[in-house]
Amino acid sequence: MKTRLRFKIIAVLICLSLVGLLISQGYWLKGLYVSSKKSTWDNIEEAMRMADYMELFLRLDSLSNNNFHSQINPQFSFSQDTAWEKRKDSLSTDNMPISSPNSTIQYIEAAQTLNEYLQIIGTLERNVQMLMHQKIDTLLPVNYAQFNTLLKNGLKKQGITVPYRLQVIRKEAKDSVLYAYTDASEKEESWKDAVHFTHVIEPEYYYELELQSPDRVVFRQMAGILISSFLLFMVILVAFVYLLYTILRLKTVEELKTDFTNNMTHELKTPISIAYAANDVLLNYSSTTNEKQKKYLDIVREQLNHLSGLVEQILTLSVENRSTFRLHLETIQVAELLTPLIEQFKLKTDKPIDITTEVPEHMTVTADRTHLYNMLSNLIGNAIKYSGEKTCRIILKGTVSSQEMALSVTDEGIGISEANQKRVFDKFYRVPSGNLHDVKGFGLGLYYVSDMMSKHNGSVTVKSQLGKGSTFTLHFKN
Q1: How far is CA 161 from CA 226, 249, 279, 284, 404, in A?
Q2: What is the dihedral angle through the alpha carbons of 21, 25, 26, 29, rounded to the nearest 10 degrees?
Q3: Distance CA 98, CA 86 (A)
């Protein structure tokens, strides 16, 4: 159940991550689209302005070649502005008059930001261009076909190749079209989504440009980014799906392993119990048992004890991983719990042991009695196993403070290196000893202690030096 809940949490987090990634990617692409669209619109307007400039200069060149330049009055007439305001809250440059060089300088000096400065310069350029039209158009009419050719080339250089319509419209007379061109179908539905651009030639008339579906140009420019973003999202999506698939497989394997462990441990308990009973009958109630047979039966009982302990430990670990696992907390007298535990080890241990207790008489902890007993049993058992052939000396110590209560098991055994201390609480981990396996076990004891202490909202720590022994301490919060 716990594994299933974790799987659901991971799946939800992955889905939320994908949705968040999709939203952020969409928001970024939308901003990029708006920016690209503005840039494309600016490029179209710039293409119209440059086409008009080039058409003007081509006519100037034609006039020069035909010796008409003497007819051009180099003095343009500027309209006098009536008053100059030092500063307006919002500069309006669309209809900015040009009165004189001094007035122009005043306008430029009034700009306080780069944007305002660029607006003024742009307005000055448009006004100059209109003044040039006023003079040149009287000498040589505008070549609209030439303008159209220049515009088409300018748009093509910008990568804009959509169909368009161009008209020259006189303002004074409504619907007075001086020139019209189209390179696309005249069906009105094809121009339903057309975008209009205007460029004023003179106050009396202007160019009007219509482009079919200019958004296609924007999307074409963004094609590389759109494709790469889509591929990146698909790669991440496939990776997440594969991750979920892998987790699901691991979840299935974990469930199979748990079921096997539960069945195996329960199936082993029955033959072990029968072997125990048969061994006790032969050892205690048989009149024909000689000393040699008794020795072998003692060995069998010892191995049965070891096997039974391993099965109980595996079963306990399996049970505590279930969703139904609950701690039965109670107030426990530590000294009272330690007494039978010490006696048990003294009876079943072959080597001489010396266990000293330094626990306050009235020290109590709130814990599950069975699991606390098993934890202390594991720590004492490890101290005995790793004490070597010499007399095993163990100190059981209890300390009480305002923040916690601590129970420590100290031995004088072989010790643990600093590198291995970081992993001694890992599941199935055993301190490497080369090719020697003189100490039996599966690396579950300390993992069980660590896991149970975390379920008690406590912790277990180790301090050890090679050749000097180890101290394992259980920390219970008050």
Answers
A1: 20, 54, 97, 105, 79
A2: 180
A3: 16
Q: What is the per-residue burial (b if ≥16 Cβ within 10 Å, else e) of 401-416?
A: eeeebbbbbbbbbbbb
Classify residue 90 by its DSSP letter: S
78: DSSP letter: P
List pLDDT tens digits, range 1-58.
566 777 788 888 888 988 998 899 889 989 988 888 888 888 888 888 888 888 888 8
What is the DSSP annotation of 365-392?
A: EEEEHHHHHHHHHHHHHHHHHTTTTSPE
| 272 vs 378: CA distance, rounded Å | 21
Per the structure block, which two tokens stand in for 348?
Answer: 């079943």
Query: Do 472 and 462 contact (CB within 8 A), yes or no?
Result: yes
pLDDT in tens, 124-171: 676 777 777 777 777 888 888 888 889 889 888 888 888 888 888 877
Classify domain 326-477 at the CATH superfamily level. Histidine kinase-like ATPase, C-terminal domain (3.30.565.10)
pLDDT in tens, 252-281: 877 777 777 777 777 777 788 888 888 888
pTM of the model: 0.46
Of 371, 281, 366, 283, the residue nearest 320 (C-alpha): 371
**Helices (H) and strands (E) in the chain — how many of each?**
11, 11
Does residue 57 sit in helix, strand or coil? helix
SS3 471: strand
Degrees to nearest 5, angle at CA 194 with 189 and 200: 135
**How large is the greatest C-alpha to C-alpha distance in the chain, in angstroms?**
147
Query: In angstroms, rounded to a whole number, what is the distance separating the alpha carbons of residues 38 and 32?
Result: 10
Q: Among 48, 40, 44, which Cα is nearest to 200's?
A: 48
Residue 13's Cβ-count burial label (10 Å; 0-12, 13-18, 19+) is exposed
CA distances from 159 to 184, 220, 337, 342 (A): 18, 9, 87, 90
